[in-house]
């Protein structure tokens, strides 16, 4: 057991080192006298950033591995995080700034005290993010301000949609051109946000070719999905004005690849049991079918060690402990050590 724990510790250290290297390439200055301090935080993107509180309980679920209450194993506890490892990456960033989301408000703070706003949605594509941003600009919060921190993570469903649409995009060249264009569109949306004053942390998408879904299709199809991932990320990376003053780029693809290559982790088996997984085939059409994944908890795992060893919650979504947690560390590191 001790040797296993040592391998896992080394593995996590390797992931964090890769993140530090990735963040170091993002530009910016560490000598700013007045580092940026967020007064509000706004989250855009897909379910990898989403706290889903459909019943408005203040105790939301996420699309992956949920913690449960120590008093009642049938009750999800959105902020009982086992050392931070079962929360979304955006929760870690909000905590850094002392901000709270209404969907995860276990202390019952008043509405006026809730300064972190969730606008992400399940299955969101770049087009969906454009609508999320438009809606925020038009709602009662008055649009963006200079002390806002904005996070953006989307593209997984763009890759899946384009990959599965052989009518609109009949060959690899057409698919690659389309996903690259969508990455560029997301980059343009980010640039539009910073023009209004906020700072933005935007993440590239994970390598879809590494997902269990892609791996199950065989090597050739997995490579196609990796190529689509790279095209999307290239479009995003080369479009955002990433000079380190207002945008921090985080490389989720690097995180996923580092984890996939680490033998200390299980990148084949799924953490969530069969009753608590989404259907990746439906993601090809953009169907909102991830509800079952909301019920995946530390009590519904395929094995006792799945929470801390398995990279994937289901065939398309990462295990929060393994990837989203590490992405959260990266985002906080970007905010703390390389101020805007």
From TrEMBL:
Which superkingdom is the protein from?
Bacteria
Task: Show the GO MF annotations.
Answer: hydrolase activity, acting on ester bonds
State the PROSITE patterns in the record: PROKAR_LIPOPROTEIN
Protein name stated in the entry: Esterase
Q: Which organism is it from?
A: Ideonella livida
């Amino acid at each position: 057991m001790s040797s296993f724990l040592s391998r896992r510790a080394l593995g996590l250290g390797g992931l964090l080192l890769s993140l530090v290297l990735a963040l170091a390439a993002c530009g910016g200055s560490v000598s700013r006298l007045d580092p940026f301090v967020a007064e509000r935080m706004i989250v855009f993107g897909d379910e990898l950033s989403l706290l889903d509180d459909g019943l408005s309980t203040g105790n939301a679920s996420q699309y992956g591995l949920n913690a449960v209450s120590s008093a009642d194993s049938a009750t999800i506890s959105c902020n009982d995080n086992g050392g931070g490892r079962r929360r979304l990456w955006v929760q870690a960033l909000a905590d850094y700034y002392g901000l709270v989301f209404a969907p995860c408000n276990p202390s019952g703070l008043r509405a006026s005290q809730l300064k972190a706003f969730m606008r992400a949605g399940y299955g969101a594509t770049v087009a969906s993010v454009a609508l999320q941003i438009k809606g925020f600009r038009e709602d009662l919060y008055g649009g963006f301000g200079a002390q806002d921190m904005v996070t953006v993570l989307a593209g997984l469903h763009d890759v899946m949609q384009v990959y599965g649409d052989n009518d609109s995009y009949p060959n690899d060249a057409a698919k690659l051109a389309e996903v690259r264009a969508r990455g560029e569109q997301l980059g343009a949306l980010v640039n539009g946000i910073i023009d209004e004053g906020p700072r933005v942390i935007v993440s590239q998408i994970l390598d879809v070719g590494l997902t269990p879904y892609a791996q199950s299709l065989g090597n050739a199809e997995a490579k196609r999905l990796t190529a689509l991932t790279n095209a999307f990320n290239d479009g995003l990376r080369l479009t955002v004005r990433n000079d380190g003053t207002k945008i921090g780029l985080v490389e989720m693809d690097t995180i996923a690849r580092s984890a996939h290559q680490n033998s200390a982790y299980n990148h084949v088996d799924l953490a969530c049991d069969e009753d608590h997984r989404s259907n990746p085939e439906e993601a090809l059409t953009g169907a909102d079918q991830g509800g079952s994944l909301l019920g995946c908890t530390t009590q519904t795992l395929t094995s006792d060690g799945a929470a801390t060893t398995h990279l994937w919650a289901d065939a398309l979504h990462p295990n929060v402990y393994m990837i989203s947690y590490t992405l959260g560390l990266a985002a906080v590191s970007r905010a703390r050590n390389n101020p805007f």
